[in-house]
Amino acid sequence: MEELVKLLQQVAPEISLAIENRYTILRNIYFNQPIGRRALSLILSLSERQLRTEVKRLETQGLIKVSPKGMELTPAGENIIFKLEHFIYHLRGLNPIAQRIKEQFNCSYVSIVPGDSDEDETVKMQLGKEAACYLKKVINSGDVIAVTGGTTMAQIPPAMEEVPGVENITVVPGRGGLGEKVEIESNTTAAELAKKLKAQYKLLYVPDNLSPETMESVINEPGIREILKIVRSADILLHGIGGAEEIGRRRGLSEDEIKKIKEKGAVAEAFGFYFNKNGQVVHMTSSVGLTIGDLKNIRIVIAIAGGKNKAPAIQAFLKYHSPTVLITDEGAARKLLELEGGKEDE
């Protein structure tokens, strides 16, 4: 595939560009369908005239259908977009980048989604789809699956499918809530994922930003203690990686507290631990649920984070802990190698 892509780029680079553009259009229709042309043109920053021309071609080829409701992919369009994902992956030269990150940070597997979720919201949806596909491959009967919250993690349940032949699955939140939008809380993601898997679930109705004294009292309640026991028996963990300042604000920290954390050099947060760019823990907060120390006991740890701006946080966390799997996007992956002081093609 890589040889074919190189030949295409040398002989007809304009074809490669056309394929990328149409893939982007198809992907955005897929994740937003039905969608009108004007709305799509705003998402893609294309003029309606430019988009009209491309849409007409795609409609003529039988890849999309246009109705008063908007544009939708046909079955042929959905089939081809899945095949194009592999082609675009090699067209963008992402395989050697994934290999370098895998070797640099000692991950068992690295998956890179084309695009940058900071610039294109559908890339975040693609990250959720990639995580769902990987989970489907590795899940076993009797597994306990833990998930954390966040906007990227919330994209996993919509992309998940039931896994035939797998039974007695339990899905749990990996951490308590942060008191933010209920749609992106870990409890919601756990419940939605369980529904897709036809699994049972347990919820953790404890905020993750309590004072240490209150936290100690709450986690000793028999009901909470029983759920935490299940959480800490997790076989598979899907978790995000947050920027230190971003998570600090989501936790409701004051501006003075955030300033102090940043002065310590914190750039990343995971499970209540804040890390500097070298992967050293520089600050800790009270947290209910899984901790950093629990990761070594989990069979498969899947870290999911994307966007060029998230690269420093990803770098910091990976220097502290090598997850079994890293699922990221092109924007974060390229920036990550840049931060490591190397060029992508070295």
From TrEMBL:
Keywords carried by this UniProt record: DNA-binding, Transcription, Transcription regulation
SUPFAM superfamilies: NagB/RpiA/CoA transferase-like, Winged helix' DNA-binding domain
Chain ranges of the CggR N-terminal DNA binding domain: 19-88
Keyword Transcription regulation in record: yes
Stretches assigned to the Sugar-binding domain: 93-338
GO molecular function terms noted in the UniProt entry: carbohydrate binding; DNA binding
InterPro entries: CggR_N, NagB/RpiA_transferase-like, SorC_transcr_regulators, Sugar-bd_dom_put, WH-like_DNA-bd_sf, WH_DNA-bd_sf
Keyword set includes Signal: no
Family: Belongs to the SorC transcriptional regulatory family.
Cross-referenced PANTHER family: CENTRAL GLYCOLYTIC GENES REGULATOR, TRANSCRIPTIONAL REGULATOR-RELATED
Entry protein name: Central glycolytic genes regulator
Annotated organism of origin: Tepidanaerobacter syntrophicus
